[in-house]
Amino acid sequence: MSNKDTQNIFNDTPITYPRLGNKGLEKNIQERDNLGTQDYARALTEFVKTCETPMTIGLQGDWGIGKTSMLNMIKAYLEGAQNSPYGIIWFNTWHYSLFGQEEYLGLAVIKGLLDQIKAQFNINEDENKFKEVAGKIGNVLKHARFSAFGFGVSASDAKGHDDSPEAQVEYQDVSSVMLKFKESFQELVNFVVEDNNFDKLVFFIDDLDRVKPLKALELLESIKNFLDVENCVFLLAVDYEVVQIGMAEKLGQDLQKISGKSFFDKIIQLPFTMPSTSYDLGNYIRTLLVNTDFSVKDQDVEFYEEVTSCTVGRNPRSIKRIINYSKLIRLIRGRHASSKTKDSDLQRKILYALLCMQVAWPEIFNYFVKSPTPATIKNIEDWEFLDKIPFIDKLYDRTPNLDQLKSNVSAYFDLFYDLLDSDNDGHISQKELAPVHDILRVARLASTSDFKQPTDTFFEFLVTNDVGKKFSKIVGLFKKSKWITSGKFEYRMSGKRYVTIVHNRKQIGSLVTLKTSPFIFRIQIDELALEEYLAPIFLDSIDIDKIIKAVESESLTGFGDTMIDLSELLAVDDKLIQKLFNRLFEYVIGTAK
Length: 593
Description:
3 domains, alpha/beta, elongated, Aspartate Aminotransferase, domain 1, Rossmann fold, five-stranded parallel beta sheet, disordered N terminus, 31 helices, 14 strands
């Protein structure tokens, strides 16, 4: 595949900055910093330059939140021009844990750092200070072993001699051994600083959140206990929660709750939480989308930001995943779409919103695509209804904050409903819903070829004869009423002529169409009580007695003792008809058990 084919597909590689000198660097950072974090990086850089040592700074945040990119930006600012007064050492802990060294990661990292210092600052192996420190730590690593009580080294190894079997039996804690190296390490640091005319050494320790929590904890302890020396600043990319899990594994849940934060605070002198809530998310998303040939207008940026925030969140890595997925689905859609298929702003927004829902909440998406209707959208906004969706417990189980999830779901579907309601009348027509069905089919996001609901089929059949066509206005008003838009009822089809109305799994009425009586609306409710409720509302504007009737013929098709004679409404004002339908709905809902 050529570079042209891959240039619009994003991987997880953090942003890096070549050494271009101060002027070139500033321009380069401005061009690449789509999240708007440049000011934070500048401030952290200034802190590193002016702080007393030793100092440990923790860049905290979830995996993929942008910690490595922030470290790279700080590193670039520190390096600046070619004659930087700072010695920079970058270390990736993940590489060491991959190659079987995780069980003694603290020691392995210290040895690795020494090797990097040696290579980076051209230290001769015969240099006494380096040889002394590296030799001792190398000896510990060489003789590292496990006793019945955990990891340790023999007392003879700690002294650097005596390999006899008798000496190998005696074990002592690694920490007590490593403390002996701290003084030598300080001498080595001083030598590097003086020899290179540095102000200080700055260590960048990355990918701690990829290491097992207990090992990440041990590595932090190693840095604090063995490397925390004058002229050194450590910047750590660390997930606070990972460290707390390690604390719980080591000390137990109870002690972790009491001492977990205090332990973290002792290790990290400056905790900096990645400012994800301040990210310029709209600019970031727009930049990524535009780079995938996904046209975004300025007035639509807010929509993309809001949909992204309440579904996949503000994590840059998660956003890249959804952008890549969007690219793939658009390629699939392009292969199956006809030349007449539009790629409008609306359709692009619908596609992006659907993909965000699918990636963030697959259980909700699977439910939605089975019945993508306005009623379904309204239903899912209801938290009680949401609890009843099949397999929703799987989503709940992996969600740390259930209340926040439900709020996000409601916000998402409110945005989605507003997106589809193009005429802003508060209702979604079949025409307004059509782009959703088109995208689900053509993009192969759903296997269903026909998304028609029972009421759609019923009403289409209702107006097929001349008598039925007279009811077109009433049909349109009924479809916009709460009977359809509220999502409180389920409609079950029994052939084209008969639809059962269900509430809380109980049959409460029916819709029936006959050639001579095109629109029969029956409900199981007390006729006189309903008349008494409606009469004061409409007074003389509608003759309720003519509209609300008892079903006298047992042979009449349908279910429900009371019938609404819709033929009496043919000459009534639209607003009164709409009001009647909604008041009737409110009464039925209020009395239904």
